[in-house]
Amino acid sequence: MLKAKESVENMTGYYVPMYEKNWDIKIDSNENNYGPSPKVLQVLNTCNIKNVSFYPFYGELSQKIADYYNLNINNVKVTNGADEAIQGIIQTYLDKNEALLTLDISFEMPVIYTQIQGGNVIKVPFKDSWEFPVDDFLNKLHNNKEIKIVYLASPNNPTGTLISEEHLKKILQASTGKAVIIDETYANYAGITNKEYIKTYDNVFIVRSFSKDFALAGLRLGCILSNENNINMLKKVISPFSVNALAAMAGMTALDDVDYLNYVVAEINQSKKELNEFFTALGANVYNSSANFLLVDFKQKSQFVFNKLKKENIIVKLFKKGTRLENHLRITIPNKNGVQKIKNALKIKPALVFDMDGVLIDARNSYRTTIEKTFEKFTGKQVSPQEIQAIKNQGGMNNDWDLTQYLIKKEGIDVSYSQITEVFQEIYWDGGNGLINNENTLFDRKLFERLSEKYNLSIFTGRLKAEAMYALKRFNAEDLFFPIITTDDIPPGMEKPNPCGLNLTRDLTLSDKYYYFGDTQDDIKAAASAGYIPVGVLPPQDKSEELIQIMKDKGARFVLQSINDIETILENTYEAKC
Question: Could you identify which of 8, 146, 261, 525 might form a hypothetical disulfide with 497, taking C-beta atoms 3.0 to 4.6 angstroms apart as the criterion?
Answer without folding.
Answer: 525
